[in-house]
Structure formats: structure tokens, C-alpha cells
Design brief:
- It is built from ten helices and nine strands.
- It has a three-stranded antiparallel β-sheet.
- By secondary structure, it is α+β, with helices and mostly antiparallel strands.
């Protein structure tokens, strides 16, 4: 199997607008805050003018890639007591990257050993991969590809969804009409299996509603304060997250920002009138839908 999607107990329907996000989150889940960057590649920069001229010519103010001989001498010399750093095969898309998965905190040992006995005329420059951002990019691209796949399958007549209001099976829908439809859980399981995606839903002893319904507690927690204007708080954060994504040249959607908003609600103790954190389905329908919220320009 490509991946497995775990849905909450009692899930009876899955909206097509949620399918790309479910698969993307299963394939490329968000990494926890504080996940260290890893070493991407190591370069050297001349500190001696003659050496800089030899390496770079007249434009002598930029770093250059380590040669295999440089790395071999480092591994056998100042880094002899540390696990060796290895390079990937030559690439045409930039500096030669390292094959060793070295987290940033571990690099400190190498930097200290190098600083204790540096070679004459040059210094090291370490370049890092931000794993959290990389994972976000993979997640975002996966969402886009699966959204395109759903439309392609629908146009080809290989996908049947149900109308949100009537529940009647529909065919050949595209765009918003397609994404507003839904699968029953059995239909979604069968569709996903065609692409080696497994769907698991734990058995629920009882079902009190659909994902669209705001969950209700029988009794509010002792001492809990009555939430005030919580939807406006979530919409304000949604607008801020939308702008952040735009600033990074990304194309946010209502679906793509919901995971962030769910985490934000928990971290900031945003509670509904039932004194619980809002669910994904409730945010989608009653907070972020076109009827209730307009993204910033």
C-alpha cells in the first residue's frame, strides 16, 4: 500500500474537497515544531586572496564545492573520530549534496573539530535543509496533484460522487460542483484502494451525527469560561495564515489552511459554545465556507 488514512470512528461520508488533504497528510504528515534542519551540502570559501583567485578568478567572493579529495582529507584528518560524511553522486542541479543525514545539532562536533585545526587559506560553510518547510512543500504539491486526479477521474467517468443535498450519485462533475460532493465511507474506501491507499475507520459503538455537526458536551467543563466570538478569532487567524502562505509564493486554499487552524485552536484554547475545540468539519462548513468567510486579497 502507498499509505493508510485513519478516519475518526463513526465517519459516514468523506467530502471530495477533503480527499487531497487526507492523502497528503497521510503521505507527508506535518513534522513537529523544533524538528532540526539537516545538512544539505558543505562548501569552502577562500580566506587567502591568492587561493580565491585560483578558485574563482576575478569574481573571488563566493564559496565553491568541496572536492572529493577535500572531504577525504577531512574525514581522515580532523574528523577521523567522527562518522564520515559522504557525498551523493554528481548532480547538475547545484552543489554536490551530502548523502549523510546529519541533523544541525550533530554538525557542531564537526565544526568544532574543524575550528581546532583549520586548513590554511579557507573555511567551511554548511548549508541546511529545512525539513519542516520541505515537508510542507511536499504536502502542498501532493494536494494539488490529487485534486487534479479527482477531476481527471470524474471527467473520464471513473469517479462517482454524491450530491451534497440529495445524496444522489453524480457523474462527470468538475470544479466546485465536484468538490462539494461526497463519498460514502464504503465508496471512498473502494476508490482509494484503486490507488493503493488504505482507509481505516475504527468501529464506533454509536453515531450521533455527521462530521458537519458541532459536537456537544453533556456538561461544560468545570470553571470553563464561555467562549466569545471564537469564530471571528479563527477567521482572523485564517486571514493571517493566508497572507503568510501568499508571502511564500504558495497558493493557499480553504482546505490547505484548516490543519493549521485546528492546531492553532488547540494551542490557543479556542473553544466553541460547547466548550470544546472546533472540529475540522465544523470549521469547513460554519467558519471558512464562502458563506461565512472571504480570504484576503
Amino acid at each position: 500500500m502507498l499509505t493508510t488514512i485513519h478516519l475518526p470512528a463513526g465517519t459516514e461520508r468523506v467530502y471530495l474537497r477533503d480527499v487531497p488533504g487526507l492523502i497528503a497528510d497521510a503521505l507527508h504528515p506535518e513534522l513537529p515544531e523544533g524538528t532540526p534542519s539537516v545538512l544539505s551540502y558543505v562548501q569552502k570559501k577562500a580566506t587567502d586572496r591568492k587561493l580565491a583567485w585560483q578558485w574563482c578568478g576575478m569574481s573571488n567572493d563566493f564559496p565553491v564545492s568541496l572536492t572529493e579529495q577535500d572531504l577525504r582529507e577531512l574525514n581522515d584528518g580532523v574528523w577521523h573520530h567522527l562518522p564520515p560524511i559522504k557525498l551523493l553522486p554528481d548532480s547538475t542541479d547545484g552543489p554536490q549534496k551530502v548523502a549523510t543525514l546529519l541533523p544541525e545539532p550533530e554538525w557542531e562536533k564537526y565544526a568544532q573539530a574543524f575550528a581546532a585545526s583549520p586548513p590554511e587559506g579557507w573555511r567551511l560553510i554548511a548549508v541546511w535543509r529545512n525539513r519542516i518547510f520541505e515537508q510542507w512543500v511536499l504536502n502542498d504539491e501532493t494536494r494539488k496533484q490529487w485534486a487534479r486526479l479527482l477531476e481527471q477521474q470524474s471527467i473520464a467517468g471513473q469517479l462517482t460522487s454524491r450530491d451534497e443535498v440529495s445524496g444522489i450519485p453524480t457523474y462527470h462533475r468538475v470544479g466546485r460542483q465536484l468538490m462539494e460532493g461526497y463519498f460514502t465511507i464504503d465508496e471512498f474506501t473502494a476508490f482509494a484502494r484503486r490507488f493503493d491507499v488504505e482507509v481505516r475507520v475504527p468501529q464506533s459503538p454509536s453515531s450521533t451525527g455527521t462530521a458537519e455537526t458541532e459536537p456537544v458536551l453533556a456538561q461544560p467543563p468545570t470553571g470553563a469560561a464561555e467562549p466569545k466570538q471564537w469564530k471571528m478569532r479563527v477567521q482572523a487567524e485564517a486571514a493571517a495564515e493566508w497572507k503568510r502562505m501568499r508571502a511564500m509564493n504558495c497558493n493557499p486554499t480553504r482546505a490547505s489552511i484548516r490543519p493549521h487552524l485546528l492546531r492553532w485552536c488547540k494551542a490557543n484554547n479556542v473553544l466553541t459554545s460547547s466548550h470544546i475545540n472546533p472540529s475540522d468539519g465544523y470549521l469547513r462548513t460554519h467558519v471558512l465556507s464562502a458563506k461565512h468567510w472571504t480570504p484576503p486579497n
